[in-house]
Amino acid sequence: MHRYTNRLGMRPYRWLRCIAAAFICLHSFSGCTDLSWEDYMAAGHDAVEENRYHEAEIFFLTAADLADYFAQDDLRRAVTLNNLGNLFVLDGRFIEAEELFHSATLIIEYAQGPSHPDLATQLDSVARFYARQAIHSQAVSLFERAVGIRETEFGPDHPITIESVSGLAGSYYHQGFHYEAETLYQRVLPILEEQLEPNNVRLADLFDEYAGVLRATNREAEALRLESQSKLIRSLP
Protein backbone atom coordinates (compact mmCIF):
# COMPACT_ATOMS: atom_id res chain seq x y z
CA MET A 1 0.00 0.00 0.00
CA HIS A 2 1.20 3.48 -0.86
CA ARG A 3 2.79 5.40 1.99
CA TYR A 4 2.44 9.16 1.66
CA THR A 5 5.70 11.06 1.36
CA ASN A 6 6.05 14.77 1.74
CA ARG A 7 7.09 17.04 -1.11
CA LEU A 8 10.77 16.33 -0.41
CA GLY A 9 10.15 12.63 -0.93
CA MET A 10 10.69 11.91 2.76
CA ARG A 11 8.25 10.79 5.41
CA PRO A 12 7.67 13.27 8.24
CA TYR A 13 10.34 13.09 10.93
CA ARG A 14 9.89 13.04 14.68
CA TRP A 15 10.68 16.77 14.84
CA LEU A 16 7.61 17.52 12.73
CA ARG A 17 5.42 15.80 15.30
CA CYS A 18 7.08 17.87 18.01
CA ILE A 19 6.33 21.08 16.11
CA ALA A 20 2.71 20.02 15.60
CA ALA A 21 2.34 19.16 19.27
CA ALA A 22 3.77 22.56 20.22
CA PHE A 23 1.24 24.31 17.98
CA ILE A 24 -1.61 22.36 19.56
CA CYS A 25 -0.43 23.25 23.04
CA LEU A 26 -0.06 26.89 22.02
CA HIS A 27 -3.61 27.06 20.70
CA SER A 28 -4.99 24.91 23.53
CA PHE A 29 -6.82 22.46 21.30
CA SER A 30 -6.33 19.70 23.88
CA GLY A 31 -3.92 18.48 26.48
CA CYS A 32 -0.26 18.42 25.53
CA THR A 33 0.51 14.76 26.15
CA ASP A 34 -0.47 11.61 24.32
CA LEU A 35 -1.83 13.50 21.33
CA SER A 36 -3.76 11.26 18.97
CA TRP A 37 -4.56 11.13 15.27
CA GLU A 38 -7.92 12.71 16.13
CA ASP A 39 -6.19 15.60 17.92
CA TYR A 40 -3.99 16.41 14.93
CA MET A 41 -6.89 16.13 12.48
CA ALA A 42 -9.08 18.42 14.60
CA ALA A 43 -6.25 20.94 14.87
CA GLY A 44 -5.77 20.77 11.10
CA HIS A 45 -9.44 21.47 10.44
CA ASP A 46 -9.40 24.44 12.82
CA ALA A 47 -6.28 25.82 11.15
CA VAL A 48 -7.86 25.51 7.68
CA GLU A 49 -10.97 27.37 8.84
CA GLU A 50 -8.73 30.19 10.07
CA ASN A 51 -6.67 30.18 6.83
CA ARG A 52 -3.54 29.08 8.67
CA TYR A 53 -2.56 26.73 5.87
CA HIS A 54 1.07 26.24 6.88
CA GLU A 55 0.06 25.08 10.35
CA ALA A 56 -2.73 22.95 8.89
CA GLU A 57 -0.20 21.20 6.67
CA ILE A 58 1.98 20.36 9.67
CA PHE A 59 -1.01 18.95 11.55
CA PHE A 60 -2.23 16.86 8.62
CA LEU A 61 1.27 15.61 7.80
CA THR A 62 1.68 14.51 11.38
CA ALA A 63 -1.72 12.80 11.28
CA ALA A 64 -0.62 11.07 8.05
CA ASP A 65 2.53 9.88 9.80
CA LEU A 66 0.43 8.38 12.59
CA ALA A 67 -2.08 6.91 10.13
CA ASP A 68 0.76 5.10 8.39
CA TYR A 69 0.78 2.70 11.35
CA PHE A 70 -2.92 1.90 11.08
CA ALA A 71 -4.16 -1.27 9.39
CA GLN A 72 -4.03 -1.24 5.60
CA ASP A 73 -7.84 -1.17 5.38
CA ASP A 74 -8.32 1.54 8.02
CA LEU A 75 -10.29 4.32 6.34
CA ARG A 76 -8.67 6.93 8.54
CA ARG A 77 -5.71 6.63 6.21
CA ALA A 78 -7.87 7.80 3.29
CA VAL A 79 -9.52 10.53 5.36
CA THR A 80 -6.10 11.93 6.23
CA LEU A 81 -4.88 11.97 2.66
CA ASN A 82 -8.10 13.52 1.36
CA ASN A 83 -7.91 16.30 3.93
CA LEU A 84 -4.30 17.00 3.09
CA GLY A 85 -5.19 16.95 -0.61
CA ASN A 86 -8.03 19.41 -0.11
CA LEU A 87 -5.62 21.69 1.75
CA PHE A 88 -3.18 21.55 -1.14
CA VAL A 89 -6.00 22.44 -3.55
CA LEU A 90 -6.73 25.55 -1.45
CA ASP A 91 -3.04 26.36 -1.64
CA GLY A 92 -2.89 25.82 -5.41
CA ARG A 93 -0.67 22.73 -5.17
CA PHE A 94 -2.64 20.60 -7.59
CA ILE A 95 0.01 18.04 -8.52
CA GLU A 96 0.57 17.12 -4.87
CA ALA A 97 -3.18 17.03 -4.28
CA GLU A 98 -3.66 14.69 -7.23
CA GLU A 99 -1.20 12.17 -5.80
CA LEU A 100 -2.95 12.25 -2.43
CA PHE A 101 -6.43 11.80 -3.92
CA HIS A 102 -5.15 8.87 -5.98
CA SER A 103 -3.67 7.22 -2.91
CA ALA A 104 -6.87 7.78 -0.90
CA THR A 105 -8.91 6.22 -3.71
CA LEU A 106 -6.73 3.11 -3.68
CA ILE A 107 -7.13 2.78 0.08
CA ILE A 108 -10.93 3.10 -0.10
CA GLU A 109 -11.18 0.56 -2.90
CA TYR A 110 -8.89 -1.83 -1.02
CA ALA A 111 -10.91 -1.44 2.18
CA GLN A 112 -14.46 -1.30 0.80
CA GLY A 113 -14.30 -3.07 -2.54
CA PRO A 114 -14.82 -1.85 -6.12
CA SER A 115 -18.60 -1.37 -5.90
CA HIS A 116 -19.05 0.35 -2.54
CA PRO A 117 -20.92 3.68 -2.34
CA ASP A 118 -18.01 5.21 -0.43
CA LEU A 119 -15.79 4.53 -3.42
CA ALA A 120 -18.34 6.21 -5.69
CA THR A 121 -18.26 9.29 -3.45
CA GLN A 122 -14.48 9.39 -3.70
CA LEU A 123 -14.50 8.87 -7.48
CA ASP A 124 -17.07 11.64 -7.95
CA SER A 125 -15.04 13.99 -5.75
CA VAL A 126 -11.79 13.36 -7.61
CA ALA A 127 -13.60 13.68 -10.96
CA ARG A 128 -14.76 17.15 -9.92
CA PHE A 129 -11.21 18.01 -8.89
CA TYR A 130 -10.13 17.26 -12.47
CA ALA A 131 -13.16 18.97 -14.02
CA ARG A 132 -12.45 22.21 -12.12
CA GLN A 133 -9.03 22.20 -13.79
CA ALA A 134 -10.59 21.42 -17.20
CA ILE A 135 -8.87 18.02 -17.28
CA HIS A 136 -12.04 16.37 -18.53
CA SER A 137 -10.35 13.35 -20.06
CA GLN A 138 -9.40 12.26 -16.54
CA ALA A 139 -12.76 13.27 -15.07
CA VAL A 140 -14.82 11.19 -17.51
CA SER A 141 -13.53 7.77 -16.47
CA LEU A 142 -14.02 8.58 -12.79
CA PHE A 143 -17.54 9.93 -13.33
CA GLU A 144 -18.39 6.84 -15.36
CA ARG A 145 -17.28 4.55 -12.55
CA ALA A 146 -19.19 6.61 -9.98
CA VAL A 147 -22.34 6.51 -12.12
CA GLY A 148 -22.09 2.74 -12.52
CA ILE A 149 -21.79 2.15 -8.77
CA ARG A 150 -24.53 4.61 -7.84
CA GLU A 151 -26.98 3.32 -10.45
CA THR A 152 -26.59 -0.19 -9.06
CA GLU A 153 -26.72 0.88 -5.43
CA PHE A 154 -29.36 3.63 -5.48
CA GLY A 155 -31.12 3.43 -8.85
CA PRO A 156 -30.85 5.55 -12.00
CA ASP A 157 -33.03 8.46 -10.83
CA HIS A 158 -31.75 8.84 -7.28
CA PRO A 159 -30.44 12.36 -6.58
CA ILE A 160 -26.96 11.09 -5.75
CA THR A 161 -26.83 9.17 -9.04
CA ILE A 162 -28.06 12.16 -11.01
CA GLU A 163 -25.32 14.24 -9.38
CA SER A 164 -22.68 12.03 -10.98
CA VAL A 165 -24.57 11.78 -14.28
CA SER A 166 -24.74 15.58 -14.57
CA GLY A 167 -21.01 15.80 -13.85
CA LEU A 168 -20.35 13.22 -16.56
CA ALA A 169 -22.54 15.14 -19.00
CA GLY A 170 -20.51 18.28 -18.36
CA SER A 171 -17.21 16.54 -18.98
CA TYR A 172 -18.56 14.98 -22.18
CA TYR A 173 -19.72 18.43 -23.30
CA HIS A 174 -16.37 20.09 -22.62
CA GLN A 175 -14.57 17.37 -24.58
CA GLY A 176 -16.85 17.81 -27.56
CA PHE A 177 -18.65 14.47 -27.15
CA HIS A 178 -21.93 16.06 -28.14
CA TYR A 179 -24.06 12.98 -28.70
CA GLU A 180 -23.06 11.42 -25.38
CA ALA A 181 -23.57 14.72 -23.55
CA GLU A 182 -26.99 15.36 -25.10
CA THR A 183 -28.21 11.91 -24.12
CA LEU A 184 -27.31 12.60 -20.50
CA TYR A 185 -28.72 16.15 -20.46
CA GLN A 186 -32.02 14.78 -21.76
CA ARG A 187 -31.95 12.31 -18.92
CA VAL A 188 -31.03 14.57 -16.01
CA LEU A 189 -32.80 17.84 -16.79
CA PRO A 190 -36.41 16.61 -16.39
CA ILE A 191 -35.45 14.94 -13.11
CA LEU A 192 -33.62 17.98 -11.74
CA GLU A 193 -36.43 20.32 -12.78
CA GLU A 194 -38.67 18.31 -10.45
CA GLN A 195 -36.12 17.91 -7.65
CA LEU A 196 -34.69 21.44 -7.49
CA GLU A 197 -36.18 24.85 -6.78
CA PRO A 198 -36.92 26.81 -9.97
CA ASN A 199 -34.28 29.44 -9.10
CA ASN A 200 -31.48 26.93 -8.53
CA VAL A 201 -28.45 28.09 -10.53
CA ARG A 202 -27.43 24.49 -11.07
CA LEU A 203 -30.31 24.26 -13.55
CA ALA A 204 -29.06 27.40 -15.29
CA ASP A 205 -25.59 25.92 -15.60
CA LEU A 206 -26.98 22.74 -17.16
CA PHE A 207 -29.21 24.71 -19.54
CA ASP A 208 -26.16 26.68 -20.68
CA GLU A 209 -24.12 23.53 -21.22
CA TYR A 210 -26.93 21.83 -23.12
CA ALA A 211 -27.36 24.98 -25.19
CA GLY A 212 -23.69 24.71 -26.10
CA VAL A 213 -24.27 21.17 -27.35
CA LEU A 214 -27.26 22.28 -29.40
CA ARG A 215 -25.37 25.19 -30.92
CA ALA A 216 -22.42 22.94 -31.78
CA THR A 217 -24.82 20.64 -33.63
CA ASN A 218 -26.48 23.49 -35.60
CA ARG A 219 -29.67 23.84 -33.56
CA GLU A 220 -29.48 27.55 -32.85
CA ALA A 221 -33.18 28.12 -32.11
CA GLU A 222 -33.25 25.38 -29.47
CA ALA A 223 -30.04 26.70 -27.96
CA LEU A 224 -31.50 30.19 -27.66
CA ARG A 225 -34.58 28.86 -25.88
CA LEU A 226 -32.44 27.12 -23.28
CA GLU A 227 -30.27 30.19 -22.81
CA SER A 228 -33.41 32.24 -22.23
CA GLN A 229 -34.45 29.79 -19.51
CA SER A 230 -31.00 30.08 -17.98
CA LYS A 231 -31.15 33.88 -17.93
CA LEU A 232 -34.60 33.77 -16.32
CA ILE A 233 -33.35 31.47 -13.55
CA ARG A 234 -30.35 33.70 -12.88
CA SER A 235 -32.62 36.74 -12.64
CA LEU A 236 -34.77 35.18 -9.94
CA PRO A 237 -34.11 36.10 -6.30
What do you see in this structure?
- With 237 residues, the protein is mainly α.
- The chain folds into two domains: 1-112, Alpha Horseshoe (Serine Threonine Protein Phosphatase 5, Tetratricopeptide repeat); 115-237, Tetratricopeptide repeat domain (Serine Threonine Protein Phosphatase 5, Tetratricopeptide repeat, Alpha Horseshoe), CATH 1.25.40.10.
- It has eleven helices and no strands.
- It has helices at residues 14-27, 37-49, 53-67, 76-90, 94-112, 117-132, 136-154, 159-175, 178-195, 201-216, 220-235.
- Helix 3 runs antiparallel to helix 4.
- The longest helix has 19 residues, at 94-112.
Q: Layout of helices and strands, plus pairs?
A:
Layout: H1 14-27, H2 37-49, H3 53-67, H4 76-90, H5 94-112, H6 117-132, H7 136-154, H8 159-175, H9 178-195, H10 201-216, H11 220-235
Helix pairs in contact: 1-3, 2-3, 3-4, 4-5, 5-6, 6-7, 7-8, 8-9, 9-10, 10-11
Overall structural domain count:
2
Envelope shape: elongated
Supply the number of helical segments.
Answer: 11
> Low-confidence parts lasting 5 or more residues at pLDDT below 50?
1-10
Elements, N to C (H/E): HHHHHHHHHHH
How many beta-strand runs? Answer: 0
Tell me the CATH superfamily of the largest domain. Answer: Tetratricopeptide repeat domain
Binned strand content: under 5%
